[in-house]
């Protein structure tokens, strides 16, 4: 807006408009209307319209696509005590010739449209993708936080007794194995056979013991044995079997 040197006060207003033609703005259209007024002079009115044939430069950001399936917590599933690996891909919706560089908050780097890295179980990992357009040398970066969590319950196996076995009046042999890909410190499990018992596991996740059947069962009665174990992240694994008590 220009300034006009006059003694009378002037008031000038300008209005502009940008229009798009669809999903992206690809042409510049500008309409300007000016109205300058003074108490002692006729109003000055003017209008100008610009229709540009030059495409407007639009920055289309790349997308970090997570190729590894996510669990119900929105994280990759941990595959070991330290976390899990994630596969990432750079996605660009605009045609062109690009190079991609990757960095993580833990110092890992890589180049190319694909990237694999380790995500710790303890805290989210920030991944940054830097895209360079080889034609214009324009650089754009985007970042994403990726987490790993443990939602898989322990694997609980009842190795003895087998379903359908019959035992005379007396104790039932019970062999249990508990394993977990993430939590390697599960040291106890619970057994239910008409009552509840908490029993220890050895350093290999095994337990060998004998359980008396449920109190006051009649001969020929089927008894369900259920065992369960919980890991450090609250995931509960269980198994069950049925045996017959003969008296």
Comma- or semicolon-separated keywords:
247 residues, single chain, disordered N terminus, mainly beta, 20 strands, Immunoglobulin-like, 4-stranded antiparallel beta sheet, 5-stranded mixed beta sheet, 3 domains
What does this molecule look like?
With 247 residues, this protein is an all-beta fold. The chain has three domains: 11-51, no CATH class; 63-149, Sandwich (Immunoglobulin-like), CATH 2.60.40.10; 155-246, Immunoglobulin-like, CATH 2.60.40.10. The chain contains no helices and 20 strands. Strands 14-20-19-16-17 form a five-stranded mixed β-sheet, with no helix packed on it. A four-stranded antiparallel β-sheet has the order 8-7-10-11, with no helix packed on it. It is elongated and about 115 Å long. It starts with 10 loop residues before the first strand and ends with a strand. The model is unreliable at 1-28 (pLDDT under 50).
Tally of distinct domains: 3
Number of DSSP-assigned strands: 20
Cα distance spanning the termini: 105 Å
Rounded to the nearest angstrom, the radius of gyration is 36 Å
Helix content: under 10%
Mean pLDDT: 82
SSE arrangement, N to C: EEEEEEEEEEEEEEEEEEEE
Blueprint (SSEs and pairs):
Layout lengths: L10 E5 L13 E10 L2 E11 L11 E4 L9 E2 L5 E9 L6 E7 L4 E3 L2 E7 L4 E9 L5 E8 L1 E2 L5 E6 L5 E3 L3 E8 L8 E5 L3 E5 L5 E6 L9 E10 L5 E11 L1
Parallel strand pairs: 5-12, 14-20
Antiparallel strand pairs: 1-2, 2-3, 4-6, 6-9, 7-8, 7-10, 10-11, 13-15, 15-18, 16-17, 16-19, 19-20
